[in-house]
Amino acid sequence: MASATAAGTSPAPAAPKSRKSVTGTRRTVAALFLLPALVLLGALVVYPIGYSLIRSFYDQSGDSFAGFDNYEALFTDDGIRTALKNNVLWVVFAPTVATALGLIFAVLTERVRWGTAFKLVVFMPMAISMLAAGIIFRLVYDQDPDKGVANAVWVGVHDTFAESSAFPKAHPGRESPLKAAGGGAFITREPVRTGEAVALPLVGVAPDLMPDSAKRARSAEPEDGRITGTTWQDFTRGKGVGTLGGVDATELGYAGMRIEAVRDGKVVASATAAGDGTFSLPAAADGAQLRLPADNFKEPYNGLDWLGPSLVTPAIIGSYVWMWAGFAMVLIAAGLAGVPRELLEAARVDGANEWQVFRRVTVPLLAPVLAVVVVTLMINVLKVFDLVFIIAPGSSQDDANVLALELYRKGFASDQPGIASAIAVFLLLLVIPVMWFNVRRLRREVRR
User: Fold this and answer.
1) Of 34, 69, 238, 317, which residue is least crowded by CB atoms under 10 Å?
2) Would you say the pTM of this structure is higher than 0.90?
3) CB 255 within 8 A of CB 215
């Protein structure tokens, strides 16, 4: 052996070792495990993106090259321009409001005993699909106050400060001493005199719709030096029952009806009918005509048209905030749990009030979490579709249009796949900077 070595014969080379990854796994094995995921990623993500990009440069048929015509339509088509404008509103307001509410909920419920239960209730809408939430808020925003919760609350608040009329359909009947005075008011045909009892019969209000304060009508007795009268619902159920122009036993008085005495265009006296419809005016009304002002007959306030052209987008954003404020609250509450309590107590010891502690200590420490929430919601609202499609009625869907909905409408309703593909690519370009910002911020956090 010594002679062989001396003769310069080198030993046999060792077998090469298989390369391993950082985790100690052979790279070929790792590649095999990743292959199904890569195939799915390519089939479900890469291929659709590439196909949409190519398709966006072709015309409606897909046979002729259209160049940038489809992208030019993004800024010239009225529907797409409306969608762009609404998307800007969504990106600016929806994440901001949802994050602000989440921050408020997280901070205020931190010290209360029932904070966990409150957070559970606020987070619960996240368990509801967008479709179900859209159906719920389509009912919430119903124009009829008897159906829509939003208008029921709004009308309740309005009527607290401005009571609506109980007789919106009332009007003079046949052979009535009243005539139209313009503007919805009614006035007597002849002047009235003191010592007379005036009858002011009206029809048009169903007995079961009369106010609760209405009582059985009573004929007023004449009084010296005064003008008395009765205003009532001159209608009795049953064919041929009741006396026209006369007060019958089952007829109801117009409780709360306002009566004005008008002479030469000026109101010289006024009165309000009692529950039985009777009223009394002083001698100053002698020779005047009695007028029932239009306020007695104005239509009841029915609230706002939440799903009309002017309010439909803010209304849908409100439903989105209802769903996602809980998501923001949970993330912010998790970040708040990691805030050092020593810093908060130190600020209070230094004389800072709770608002100053919140604004100058809590919010800056929560800035990374707030950035995560805002960026996540911005990506989410850029592709919002379900809520707008379900909530907005057909009459105002054009006014509530967003890019994702316009993509659907161009691709399926209008059969313009080229423009729909251009919208999809444009949406991707809008999302990429936000995602890039989020990835960079996460990498900075990891390096810390």
Assistant:
1) 238
2) no
3) yes
